[in-house]
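Entry 14. Ran structure prediction on the chain below.
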Amino acid sequence: MKIYIGNLDEKIQNSHLLEAFKDFGTVSSARVIKDHFSGKSKGFGFVEMPDEEEAVKTIKNVNGATWEGKVITVKKAFK
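Output, structure tokens:
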């Protein structure tokens, strides 16, 4: 399942997403979306978790949490 993470601090990198979300289960990929020209974070990213049950639990546990002083939005990403 692909998970959307919004309202990320600009300091958050791919490795930070991976480290934070692997505590909740297996993570197959973690990516912060960056501006093509500036290279700066757009403030959101995606994490993929192959186990749907782990992903659903992660969303429930992490949505609305504070990370680097910002309340993040975590929900299922739609293709």
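Residues 19 and 30 are 9 Å apart (CA to CA). Will compare against last week's run tomorrow.
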